[in-house]
Specification:
There is one protein chain. The strands form two sheets. The protein has a four-stranded antiparallel β-sheet with strand order 1-2-3-4, covered by helices on one side. A four-stranded antiparallel β-sheet has the order 5-6-7-8, with helices on one face. It contains four helices and eight strands, in the order H-H-H-E-E-E-E-H-E-E-E-E. Among the domains are: about 70 residues; about 80 residues, Nuclear Transport Factor 2, Chain: A (Roll). Strand 7 and strand 8 form a beta hairpin. With about 260 residues, the protein is an alpha+beta fold.
Length: about 260
C-alpha cells in the first residue's frame, strides 16, 4: 500500500508536468511560435452610407399572397435559376413560337403546362457597328401525359433546343394549386366541411419504396390544406395527383 507521503509527492509531480505542458501548449499557438500573422488590407469606410433598399409589401386579402409594393399580380411563371423572368406578353409570344415547333409538340403530348420562363444573358452588348446578339430564352413545360419536364430554348422566335428532363419537378404554379384545390373541394370525403375555408397548396413528391411506391410517386402531386384565412393551422388536407387528376388522400388534420 502506498504511503500518504509518497502519494502526495507523485500528485505534486503530475500537477507540475500538466501545468508546464499546458503553458507550453498555449505559448506555441495554433501554428507554432514562428507562424506570422495573416496580413489584412484595411480600407476606410465610405464617407456616405449607401442607401438601403427596403422591401415593403402591400396588404394581402384573405388567403392571398403578399406582393412587393408596386408590383403587379404575380404571374403563373417564375424565373428559373439561370436568368430573369420576361414580362407576360413576351412569355406569351415565346410560348406560341415554342408550341408551333413539331419537336416541342411531340415532347409535350396532349396535356401540359408552362411552368417556368426566363431569359439568360450569356454575352455582353457589343460596341461599334455590330448589334448585340439576342439572348436565348428558356421555357420549361411539364407534360402530365409523360410526367416529364421539357426544357425549350429559343433565340428570338426560333426553337434551338428541346430537352426532356426526367425526374425534374419545377416549383408548383398558381394554376396548379388552383386546380388541386378545386379537385380537393369536389372529393366526397371533404364534402360539406370546407365552407368558409381557404385552400393552399405545395408541391410534394411521394416516396419510392423498396417493395412498393407511395401513391402518386413519379406524378405531379400537390399537398392541399384548408384553413381559416391566414390563421395558418390547417383543418383539412388532401393529396392531389394532377397527372391522374384525382384525390389520393383526404382527411381532417389533427389538432396540435
Amino acid at each position: 500500500m502506498m504511503k500518504p507521503r509518497n502519494a502526495g509527492g507523485i500528485i505534486t509531480i503530475v500537477l507540475v508536468v500538466c501545468t508546464v505542458g499546458c503553458a507550453s501548449e498555449r505559448s506555441l499557438g495554433p501554428f507554432g511560435p514562428d507562424d506570422p500573422e495573416t496580413p489584412v488590407t484595411k480600407t476606410s469606410l465610405p464617407a456616405v452610407v449607401p442607401p438601403v433598399h427596403l422591401l415593403q409589401f402591400d396588404d394581402a386579402g384573405q388567403g392571398d399572397l403578399m406582393l412587393p409594393r408596386g408590383s403587379s399580380h404575380p404571374g403563373l411563371l417564375a424565373a428559373g435559376a439561370s436568368g430573369v423572368a420576361p414580362d407576360e406578353q413576351a412569355v406569351s409570344k415565346l410560348q406560341t413560337a415554342a408550341l408551333a415547333d413539331p419537336r416541342v409538340q411531340a415532347a409535350l403530348g396532349d396535356r401540359f403546362r408552362l411552368v417556368e420562363a426566363d431569359q439568360v444573358e450569356t454575352t455582353s452588348p457589343r460596341s461599334g457597328c455590330c448589334p448585340a446578339p439576342s439572348h436565348p430564352s428558356r421555357l420549361v413545360f411539364y407534360s402530365y401525359g409523360t410526367d416529364t419536364s421539357v426544357e425549350v430554348w429559343l433565340r428570338g422566335d426560333r426553337v434551338i433546343a428541346v430537352t426532356p428532363r426526367p425526374g425534374y419537378q419545377p416549383p408548383e404554379t398558381q394554376e396548379e394549386v388552383a386546380e388541386a384545390v378545386s379537385l380537393a373541394r369536389q372529393d366526397r370525403r371533404l364534402e360539406g366541411k370546407l365552407e368558409g375555408l381557404d385552400g393552399h397548396g405545395i408541391l410534394t413528391q411521394p416516396a419510392r419504396g423498396w417493395l412498393w411506391d407511395d401513391a402518386g410517386q413519379g406524378h405531379r402531386v400537390i399537398w392541399v390544406t384548408f384553413s381559416k384565412g391566414l390563421e395558418g393551422r390547417p383543418l383539412y388536407g388532401a393529396l392531389v395527383d394532377l397527372s391522374a387528376r384525382k384525390v389520393l388522400k383526404a382527411r381532417e388534420e389533427p389538432s396540435h
